[in-house]
Design goal:
By secondary structure, the chain is of the alpha+beta class. It has two domains: about 120 residues, no CATH class; about 100 residues, no CATH class. It contains ten helices and six strands; from the N terminus they run H-E-E-H-E-H-E-E-E-H-H-H-H-H-H-H. A hairpin with a 5-residue loop joins strand 4 and strand 5. Bound molecules: cobalamin (B12) and iron/sulfur cluster (SF4) (2 copies). The site of cobalamin has 28 residues, from helix 3, strand 6 and helix 5.
Length: about 250
């Protein structure tokens, strides 16, 4: 049954899949590569295309249907980012990668530019085993991080990705970290420098569609919150709202 499910996922373009146990259920874990090239602009690569939560959920929805109609499962529920499990931990246990010093999950074939999604089901399948080994430990991510966030563990309060999503006033130190990272939403630095990402595979085709690389003030100016939601509601960068993006644009301008 596991091979049948993996073959179906592969037919949807999802080649990296694995199985782990999760809280009395079986987790079918899938990786979704998204690297479509680093372009000029102030958005990080994971925010270029339509919100990955939507794309991943659509694909996993088809796996849920297949589990129920073709595999005899009674229950199948899809999760992308927002779910009961710690995604990286689940992917690790499903044999899909190892932890990098940049804290991200690295897959031997995909590198780290992928999203993790999973389906929880009652269908019992043999679990995969965690991969042996780890990242190359070259330390490039630690040295390149614009906030020093990877020095001796992970310090979220110094991570530009976290700061671009933090609401309210930021300190001058926090603003300087965002300026060094150069993005109004997210940060790519610790992945771009990583040798495991030297030759990322093509992304899922959905991540090549309708991309925005650069968010400009004139794209947001004058929009009510409702208009902002209508225009950008299907974008990952929109989830913290317009005010946070405007603040970040101001920070990068200085
Ligand atoms: C909160 C969060 C953030 C926060 C904090 C990130 C962090 N490093 O802790 C912020 C906003 C900073 C962030 C940023 C980013 N994020 Co984020 N984030 C999450 C989220 C929603 C929860 C993670 C979390 O805090 N879990 C709770 C803690 C306790 O778990 P944890 O950090 O994974 O550690 C646990 C285990 O993994 C395990 N563990 C940790 N290390 C090791 C090592 C070994 C050897 C072992 C055995 C176990 C182990 O033990 C820990 C305790 O249980 C997940 C999605 C999810 N629901 O899981 C995405 C997620 C981790 N993010 C993701 C992405 C893409 C990013 C960004 C790249 C986006 C961007 N371009 O800006 C950056 C990368 C920053 C970075 N260097 O980590 C992806 C990562 C994909 C991947 N390849 O790993 C995820 C999985 C979302 C998804 N579903 O695809 N993120
Ligand atoms: S996402 Fe950017 S700021 Fe955060 S740890 Fe990686 S390099 Fe550092
Ligand atoms: S840059 Fe080097 S140390 Fe950092 S995650 Fe990649 S291989 Fe590991």
């Amino acid at each position: 049954m596991k091979q049948k499910l993996k073959a179906y996922a592969a037919s949807l373009g999802i080649t990296e899949t694995g199985v782990a146990a999760y809280g009395g259920s079986t987790a079918f874990v899938c990786l979704f590569p998204y690297f479509s090239g680093k372009e000029e602009g102030n958005l990080s690569v994971y925010a270029y295309s339509r919100d990955y939560h939507i794309v991943v959920k659509e694909k996993l929805g088809r796996i849920c249907d297949f589990l129920i109609s073709e595999c005899g499962a009674e229950r199948a529920e899809a999760f992308a980012d927002i779910g009961p499990a710690v995604d990286k931990n689940l992917a690790y246990h499903a044999g899909l990668g190892f932890y990098g010093k940049n804290t991200l999950m690295i897959n031997p074939r995909l590198g780290s530019f992928f999203f993790i999604g999973y389906v929880l089901t009652d269908l019992v399948m043999e679990c995969d085993k965690p991969l042996e080994g780890g990242c190359l430990s070259c330390g490039r991510c630690v040295r390149a991080c614009p906030g020093g966030a990877l020095d001796g563990g992970f310090h979220e309060e110094r991570c530009a990705s976290a700061l671009t999503q933090k609401k309210g006033e930021l300190t001058e130190d926090e603003r300087a970290i965002i300026r060094r990272a150069g993005c109004v939403f997210g940060c790519d630095v610790c992945q771009l420098v990583c040798p495991h990402n030297a030759a990322p595979p093509p992304p899922m085709p959905e991540f090549l569609e309708n991309r925005i690389f650069d968010l400009r003030r004139d794209m947001l100016d004058g929009l009510s919150n409702r208009e902002f939601r209508e225009k950008f509601g299907d974008r990952a960068f929109a989830w913290r709202g317009k005010a946070v993006l405007m603040r970040n644009l101001n920070i990068l301008k200085k």
